[in-house]
Amino acid sequence: xATAPPAATTADHVYNFNAGPxxxxxxxxEEVQAELLDYRGTGISIMEASHRAPEYEEINAQAQERLxxxxxxxxxxxxxxxxxxxxxxxxxVPMNLLTxxxxxDYVVTGNWTQKAxxxxxxxxxxxxxxxxxxxxxxxxxxxxxxxxxxxxAYVHICSNETVWGVQWPDAPDTGGAPLVxxxxxxxxxxPLGGSRFALLYAGAQKNLGPAGVTVVAIRADLLExxxxxxxxxxxxxxxAKSKSLYNTPPVxxxxxxxxxxxxxxxxxxxxxxxxxxxxxxxIYDAVDTSGGYYRGHAEPGSRSLMNATFRLxxxxxxxxxxxxxxxxxxxxLAGHRSVGGIRxxxxxxxxxxxPEALAQFMPDFAARHG
Length: 370
Ligand SMILES: *Cc1c(COP(=O)(O)O)cnc(C)c1O
Hints:
This protein has ten helices and 14 strands. By secondary structure, it is α/β, with parallel strands linked by helices. The chain has a seven-stranded mixed β-sheet, sandwiched between helices. A three-stranded antiparallel β-sheet has the order 11-12-14. Helix 5 links the parallel strand 3 and strand 4 (125-131).
């Protein structure tokens, strides 16, 4: 390249509210850039190295240990780095855990749990413990609304429904049944006590890194549940036995994720959680004080700290909002194509400045287009 890219200025003027793939911590991107051509004196890029080389084995082990520490998981958990996105876990979870004669319970709180439920039905017997479909996914069910089957194989939830912007304030009590959670869009955004989950999974591209790797943490006692004839690559036990190096892992995404995990450790999950609360409060306050111009989708007790969703008086104004906001450097604000409206994604790597600036833009836009 003839001239240096205007990286610093661009980043200064763009606030990335994309829902996923999403913003990454700036220091991580700079580190990736600095060691892209020569990984720590090896003379080659980490992308060009063998996944059996000590350099990569160290990254792999570090990322697993960091996740274990940050999620508060003991040695009884295997931490896996798989391909296929979180969506493949909609299949792998029931394939491994929903054995013949058993029933799995699903709590349906939005698009992602609808998909997970539908996939599980292809594998075995599914019971819907609660569905918020008729209320258009405006809230998380209360504990007393959950109707579990007798002795479920597991209970599946999605901790944060990215599309609608509803988030569990806390994990539900399953009465001892193994709890499985899709945490793709809020993993490590708050201290949630990973050991309360028998299995958790997350596509990396919202809070952990670039697209291409999915994190799965599974308690060891669940590893041997899978039917004997389940294909090798689809068995959690295959990956657990080989430290998630059974075949070529997504080397580059795991490498970047490991740097993001180091950044989370340095910052502290508590600090990140507090910042996430403040960021979301800025946006929800702008909604609540707009005199009804902005209408929040989720009920206050179920509002997501990661994806704030709201509507404007009509779709034309929503289109204008997205366009004018983009001109001011606020990118990625259009709601998911299935629901429309506005979605402000506020993942860990987003600082306070973006939401602060957006919270000023919102009343200004409402005044001009009231
Ligand atoms: C993005 C997302 C998914 C889908 O992830 P892929 O990696 O694209 O398969 C699943 N669940 C939730 C909660 C998500 O936010």
